[in-house]
Amino acid sequence: MSRCIYKERVGRQHSCTARGPAAFPKKIAFLVTLCFCLAFLSIFEAEPARANALELPATVQVRNDESPPEDNPDFAFLKGRWRRPDGGYLCEIKNIDATGKMDAAYRNPRLINISRAEASREGVTTKVFIELRDAGYPGCTYTLTYDPQTDQLKGVYFQAAIQQSFEVVFVRTR
Fold this sequence. Notes:
CATH architecture of the largest domain: Beta Barrel
CATH superfamily of the largest domain: Avidin-like
Radius of gyration: 30 Å
CATH topology of the largest domain: Lipocalin
Largest sheet: 9 strands, antiparallel
């Protein structure tokens, strides 16, 4: 590190490193550059939102209320928290829309991404399908059937990483 010596106004000699007064202009240049970059980014972040608003066709209706889609009354009984007794895996079904698409969460014990979750009917039988896509869950699936007599979801868990299927049961916890 280079050192410099200069006299202060009081007449004493003072030694400083390049980080001292000589580095001051570099700090200002850095701050000015940072402010410029932030201003530049804020302008371009606002532009796409405005551009997208202008590109909407006249027939598209935008919902102003942020209410969730209405639940499908045919599948309302599936809503709730379900637990696999053999390992503590949790599945929470929050909402089910008119097409059977479910808003669900899965934990083991950390949150695992669900790529697809849906309910369907085959005659009087209610089916649930859940596909997981996350680290350690490369397309693992649950294919379940609701048993109204025991209030359980029963079926098969396919572990894609090892290409094996396992019989599973989920019991309602609330």
